[in-house]
Amino acid sequence: MPELPEVETTCRGIAPHIMQRTVREVIVRESRLRWPVPRKLNQLLSGARFLSVGRRAKYLLLETARGTLMVHLGMSGSLRIMPADTPPLYHDHIDIVLDNELCLRYHDPRRFGSFHWLQSPQHPLLDHLGPEPLSGSFSGAYLYDRSRRRRIPVKQFIMDGKVVVGVGNIYANEALFMAGIHPARAAGRIAKARYDILVGTIKQVLADAIEQGGTTLRDFVGGDGSPGYFAQQLRVYGREGQPCRVCCAALKEIRQGGRSTILCPRCQR
């Protein structure tokens, strides 16, 4: 599914096309997403102007003077800018038609995404989220404090959105490898100095992925229609059985929480 860098790439890709543009209409072809699309979405958005485009965790926040449209891309969703008269494809579920003859089109084959209308910054899906990983509040000291007496494997610990948002499976694999930490090690058994290193690698791998447009996955396309290219530089994810790029040992796959984890048995003891 799209992870934080892909969502940030989408945010940056659509912002120049919708900022300060007025919504002409909203066309909902399929309202049965993960949660039903608000019935009055066309009424709520028509005539409104987008004032800002932001992101919180993996949620896109499109703000107007009337309220904020919150969008989650789910497993396979994407938002693309295209001419408003472009014929829709089968899984093109929602069009937000703008006053510049363009539309913001939501495409989602699996329909696991969601659209929500917020009248205030508070929403149950946003409550209790941890800090943004690229913010100053995310630090080694913070992770160390949160991890005390926790027996959960460190990979699952950093993927917990209540601890820190947006560190999905791909980037958790990459950051732990770069930090030389075994993904199965108990979070509570890692020293603060190692968490300082891990926070640095998390920030580095996410920033690099955002800079290069996200990771190309089968279901993801950038907001401007172009794919990301970070997948070309993945160090471990998707490379099980191949040689480690540091020590040449064969990379190993284990399963954690139903997800694939790739590690180097030498570099991550």
Provide an overview of this structure.
It contains six helices and ten strands. The protein is α+β, with helices and mostly antiparallel strands and 269 residues long. The chain folds into two domains: 4-118, N-terminal domain of MutM-like DNA repair proteins, CATH 3.20.190; 140-263, Helicase, Ruva Protein, domain 3 (Orthogonal Bundle). The strands form three sheets. A four-stranded antiparallel beta sheet has the order 1-6-7-5. Helix 1 crosses helix 6 (192-211), helix 3 (140-147) packs across helix 6 and helix 5 (169-179) packs across helix 6 (192-211). The radius of gyration is 20 Å and the shape is elongated. The mean pLDDT is 92.
How large a portion of the residues is in β-strands, by DSSP E?
A: 15-25%
Low-confidence stretches: none
In one word, what is the shape? Answer: elongated
Query: Domains counted in the coordinates: how many?
Result: 2
- Read across the widest sheet, the strand sequence of neighbours is 1-6-7-5
Q: What is the radius of gyration?
A: 20 Å
The major pleated sheet works out as: 4 strands, antiparallel
Order of helices and strands: HEHEEEEEEEHHHHEE
User: What's the rounded overall pLDDT mean?
Assistant: 92
How is the topology of this model organized?
Blueprint lengths: L3 H15 L4 E6 L12 H5 L6 E5 L2 E5 L4 E5 L5 E6 L8 E7 L3 E6 L6 E5 L21 H8 L6 H5 L10 H11 L12 H20 L40 E5 L2 E5 L6
Antiparallel strand pairs: 1-6, 2-3, 3-4, 4-8, 5-7, 6-7, 9-10
Which features characterize this protein?
N-terminal domain of MutM-like DNA repair proteins, four-stranded antiparallel sheet, Helicase, Ruva Protein, domain 3, 6 helices, 269 residues, 2 domains, elongated, alpha+beta, 10 strands, 24% helix
